# Entry
Amino acid sequence: MEKRIALVACNGGCRNDSCGYGCIGCAACVSVCPADAIVINDCGVAEVDESLCLGCGACGDACPQGIIHLHDPGCPMVVKCSNRDPGKVARNACQVSCIGCGICEKVCPSGAAKVTDDLSTIDEELCLSCGMCAVKCPRHAIYDLRGVLTAKR
Amino acid sequence: MATFFVNGQAVTAEKNQTLLRFLRDELHLTSVKDGCSEGACGACSVLIDGETCRACVPKTDSLEGKHVLTVEGLSDFEKKLYTYAYGEAGAVQCGFCIPGMVLCTKALLDKVADPTEEQMRYAIRNNYCRCTGYVKIIKAMVLAAKLKKAGVIPEPSETDWKLGSSVHRLDVEEKVLGYGKYPDDWYLDGMTYGSAVRSEYPRARVLGIDASKAKALPGVVAVLTAEDIPGENKVGHIKHDQYSLIPVGGLTHWLGDPIALVVAEDQETLEKAKKLVKVTYEPLPAVHGPEEAKAPDAPRVFDEEETNVQAYKHVSRGDATGAIARSKYVISKHFETPWTEHAFLEPECAVAYMDEDGYVRVLSTDQSSHTTLHECKILLGSDKVRVQNQLVGGGFGGKEDMTVQHHAALITYLTGRAVKVKLSRAESLLIHPKRHPFWMDFTIGCDENGIIQGVKASVYSDTGAFASLGGPVLERACTHASGPYNYQNFEIEGTAYYTNNPPAGAFRGFGVTQTCFAIESLLNEMAERIGISPWEIRYRNAIRPGQELPNGQIVGPETGLVETLEAIKPYYDAAVAAGKPVGLASAMKNSGVGVGLPDWGRCKLIVEADAKVHIYAGASCIGQGLGTVLVQMVVTNTPLNRDDIVYERSNTWIAPDSGDSSGSRQTLITGEACRRACEKLTEALKTRTLEELNGEVFYGEYLAKTDKLGADVPHPVSHVAYGYATQMCVLDRNTGKIESMVAVHDVGKAVNPRSCEGQIEGGVVMSMGYALREQYPIDDNCKPIDKFGKLGLFRAHEIPEIQAIVVDKPGLDVACGAIGIGEITSIPTAPAIAEAYYQLDGQRRTKLPLSDTPYERRCR
# Structure
């Protein structure tokens, strides 16, 4: 589909501010969003209201961490983490970090999920939206944005 | 444990399991089809809180309080709505994907009252269909949206059930609402589960089998080995070289070779027990492909064989070498085509039990219940077997061999217990025979006007671990390699090699899909060399009524290749005039087995106590719609109405053997047998009513008589009938993607034009995959490495506009002029697409799938 929407690839489970990759809650995205679609949630990270997002991409340009991507709303399975540290470091940094364990890659039926640099990514062109990755992720770093197979956040 | 709602009812799942297993095994909601259990196919789609989800993904414990909907839970209006829309659009073929598609449609229409066609394609893009090419499913969605808004469901647009009428297929409702039974939908009392332990090595000597630990596991019913087989171990269509179980001391031929059959009370115990069977091997060097197979010192795939050559064919008429030497223009090229997986949506499954008469009853999904019967009898050494076809979730040639049926029969025969033997999707990908990869060298010679003087070719194929139909596929590849043209100097030799790869056998097109790519690609290049269009070179050479094919057969007045070319010309000219990259190719395909083999169609019309005529033909409907064809045949050829007729699925004890659903033969051959039975019934109805005819049987049979390959007659009849086709591919110059496909087919009389279109669309999309993306990679251990979701099958949102055109030309004087359409739909597609890409970028591609296209499969 043509329309794409913004996704903040961080779910705000960090401890001791030791994750250098995630959302820092600076609200740069909030201030540039023309549709008021972004808020800083109670975990202190930016969250996009998909129903309001226009897909303009201004937030992505504004984000100093570079963790807001435009994605296909028809592909609800998303990795909400940007941590590229090795598994052990990533595990200690956050409760819901991707540790690059590769289970998503193993269970993905279509070759869409892949771990590179200790971080899982999903190729939306190949993804069949089955959610096997989200269900099997031991770190709850992969979400079904519809809130069906996983909690919404 | 979790409590949630299924179709509005509160249910509690005690054991944490996938939703799919709970819905099927505990609630027996069998509309939720198990197509892969790995998240790929979409056949188990349900709605959870209104969103489409695959039931094989979530565990029941995660569903507390949620609402699950299956098609069984649709409202009465919705059931009627989707049955009508899918029937009217002609969207139902094998039916296995349909309940999932229906739920995707509902989820969309519940959210968007007036969706665009793009939104519809998008709504089903995660669900695979292998039969329809999605075209008619999308039409059904458009229609459903319209009717849902209107709130009223009209009468079907065509209702007279005579030949030529696009009536709704008779199996629409059971497939839309999911109550029609495929073998896996049977849950019998006391049913056990069976599965084979398979070879760990593609080629190894089995030194010992220790099943003691498995047998000791509580819940294990039996572990069977080759020693337990009462009859012949080896089965097979023509050559009996497929081991049902590898004996101790025997050689394994590929990773799918079964070594022991484990039977258990439940599926979990079965999986545990399989791991406890210890097989010791002496691993041996494997043969990885034809190049290795043909080496003088190659390991032999079979102990019993002198060489790895499974089949050799030589076809020659006239003087090809001389004619090519004298030709003004000569082109020689090498071509390669890949393995292809059928990817039917329903994995192989058979259920067997002892029936009330002491026979082993096999409920099967296959392309001929009589073939299954024959093979099971060989294995059991007993005639006490009956086979009953269930719904068949697609075949395309991949369900012609024994995969599970014979194992199920053996288990019931030896244990007396009912059993279900089912392949996982991974097993299915390994086990049923695939489309042969071919390596082909072709030379064509033409005169200055583009008239073909002669063609000479040499081809070889990898037929894998057992013969299956490797010989006939090779033969058909050779006999049709000439293309549908009028020339008399033709020579081809072909060899099929055994290897330790998975077996190859029948696949829609039966060898012709491969050689057609070579000859049609050469013809396109030749047209350019001579300076005429691809259309013109075909029109000049096209076989016309009364002319002689390169195989010597003189074709009859029904021959319609020229008509397909004339029908496509306006589209072709318009695309060329618009400056679009366009490619064209033609093909012929036999309807019927031919080449002198006894090809019988048989049909019984039995008047039963309900005062209806029941159609019994031992011929499988594998999704193509044979039941509807036969009912339309009866309505046309008797004074009866649709309501007087019942179609019975193929069985082996009432329905007479009418051959395999193979070679595009059922419409023509069983159709003619049915027509002959109708003549007798019509005669009887002149003096008596159906009530008075109760118990009478009207039998029709038809032998499609042909001559042997190389028969010593001036003009051997190789096949009783051929279908002809010309297809065209138009590319979008900006995106490099396919803008449209036009497929013109000569099928004689189209029995049900909408079904016929559905066959064409499905065949074209299947071969778009063959041309552009599908692969079946095999690793160094002879193991296919990809899962179902990685095969590269086309998805709904990727499908271009597909125009299916049926040329209305009177057919033969059999089966009311109907000729089979099944295979030819897939044959000229790949060379047409290859030519379009040449027109786009000037690169001649001689290998499939085509390289450097936007469809090329990316590896992650």
Q: What stands out?
A: Chain A has one domain: 5-144. The domain at 5-144 of chain A is CATH 3.30.70.20 (Alpha-Beta Plaits).
